[in-house]
Predict the 3D structure of the following.
Amino acid sequence: MPGDASPWDPNAWEKHIQRALKLRYAQPVGTYQHIAAESGGDYGLEGFAVDGTAYQCYACQTWTDSAFLLKKQKTKMTADIGKLIRNESELLKILGDIRIGIWNFVLPFWNNKELLIHANKKAEEVRRRDPQHVTKDFRISVITGEEFAMEIRALANQDIYQFDVKDIPDSVSDVAKWFDDNKGLEMAENLTRKSTVIAQGKPERMRQRFLNQMVKDYIGGQVVLGRLELELPEVYENVIRRKTFREDELEAECLTNTSVPGEFFNATLSAYKSTLRSVSGISPNAADVLAREAVSDWLLRCPLEFE
């Protein structure tokens, strides 16, 4: 389905897309105009380019199913196209001699073709009214952040945009399935053995909680790594390079380490969190998730070893 279903705050979504638009239309300066909504509203568009392409952002919050999401998106489109029609005289003053040919409805995610049918109906409604500030062939498009992949990658490299983690599956069943799938295999045995060493002197329930948390960190972190690779491949490569470099260092450190296993584990995790927080293009929250993934992976595969 188009876009990413991760939740977005509406204001954060608009700010995110405005940054991408300003980069897309950076040359020559003045090619794109952002319309501030603070004074009198945005009149159904939040920005436009000199080529007649207009943009309106919307991020639906707390939707629970596709039907609810579709209803909210259709309602928002109807309301904004209504503003676009009603505010013809004001928009003529703002647009000057520019005429809107495409009105892009920019969403984080959509998943029902009925939204496209609704868009065509609203576009036809605008053409029938024949307002002066749109072209005769006016149309509406539904797009997502995927349309701005190059701009978002460029912003991430400048650390203006940061990849974040908004939702990670946290399922007991996923952990149980992982143990079932890996029963008797080396990775599961490594983790069980090391959890006993790290939790030495602690109650069995605490050892089991630690073991389960490492599996959760590994499973969730792998999902986040996959998202990062798709969205920001250059940032992903940077993270992987640092992980590989730190892994090589760990194998040597484990041979000379004299710390208590639990202390060494905590120090390794804390230091690697700091390392990843310096990477441009990822949020501190994402850096922590990726650090936990790395440490759990090292436990499973044995670059992080205890004697």
